[in-house]
Design goal:
Blueprint lengths: L5 H13 L2 H39 L3 E6 L14 H4 L6 H10 L3 E15 L2 E11 L3 H4 L4 E6 L4 H5 L4 E4 L1 H7 L9 E4 L2 E9 L15 E4 H8 L6 E6 L5 H12 L8 E5 H44 L1 H9 L4 H34 L9 H27 L3 H6 L2
Parallel strand pairs: 3-8, 5-7
Antiparallel strand pairs: 1-9, 1-10, 2-3, 2-6, 2-9, 4-7, 5-8, 6-7
Helix pairs in contact: 1-12, 2-10, 2-12, 2-13, 4-9, 10-12, 10-13, 12-13
Pfam family, one: FtsX
Keywords: Cell membrane, Membrane, Transmembrane, Transmembrane helix
InterPro entries: ABC3_permease_C, MacB_PCD, Macrolide_Exporter_MacB
Length: 407
Amino acid sequence: MLKPSLDDLIKSSFRSILKNKGRTALTSLGIIIGVTSVILLTSIGNGLQIYINKQFESLGANTVFVTPGKIFNDQGRFSNSPSSRLVTTSFTKKDLNDLRRNLKNSTVSPNSQTIVDVSTSFANKKSVTTLGSNYLYGSSNNLIPIANSGRWFTKKEDDKNSNVVVLGYNLAIDLFPKTSALGKKIIAKGKTLKVIGVLDKKGGSLGGPALDDYLFVPIGLVFEFTGTENINAFNIKADKQQNIEAIKSEIKKILLKKYDSDAFSVFDSSQLLSSINSIIGTLTIALTGIAAISLVVGGIGIMNIMLVTITERTREIGLRKAIGAYPRAILIQFLIEAIILSSIGGAVGIILGSLGTWGIAQFFPAQITIGSISIAFGVSFAVGVIFGVAPAKKASMLSPIEALRYE
């Protein structure tokens, strides 16, 4: 009996596949689309998590946020209650003073935002997101001016609502494209403000303007711009991470004297990061699962083509069996052909997915990993095995007499 080596079977499988290049390409298309989609989606999910983790690292683990509305439920997950979506509560200067007076071992920074039209002698009027806070906000949030590019505003400037401004990296370039912004003047709502600092580049943002595009002023100026003294949120920096829980409890105690429990949320950076990562992970898995459906469709396509191939090669199979080929050798050869088809699709999909990830990464956080590539190729290999077994088994069980009679 003939007992071909594995090397001979692989070479024979490749020769068979290369005889029908067009069919091979079309058969692998489903696998290509599936693997490309899986690579892209996992890369976006992974890149998004890395990006968000880096953003929170800059804040540190000892930051507590106080915001309007019920953001987290009692289980520590994002809340779906109507109050989390419809609340229009803003905090007040009294709340700020109460927090400052009662909180120990921490620094309290208010946050009030508005949109203001600004202009300079170097640039036309531009609508800019303006954030008002206090002298502690810059150091608490790692907003550091570029070397030799000024400073954050001082307590004295904060107390006096001085007409000073700190510019985000990109905004400084937009407003002063051909010169240094430091020491220059800008006009905002009729006020002339002096640029005392330009922040180092912070990178992009998701769902809103980046800090690089912000304008930062003492909070009293935002109150003047808006005609109100509403505060959007508080950032509270604990001196030690061990004091976080005690500070959160004290904040709730202070605010519950004035607000209903659904009117505000108190949470720390690790709690927020954990919830965001959980959501991103769940979405990535769900979307990847949907994309993986095309891998199943591709596997069915491979199985159908292999059945057609076996029908076309029935006489060849009969002849090989008649001269002593083992059924196992025939099974292995056709199984190898199915695996090669799916692996070609997997390899092309990985290349396209990697190129797509590189393109997306120019505009959006995306990062491919060795793990996602290995999983994608492993799944495409497994698809070839799973959907190639039935046709290969059928080929190995053909009767040589019946096969030789086949026209």
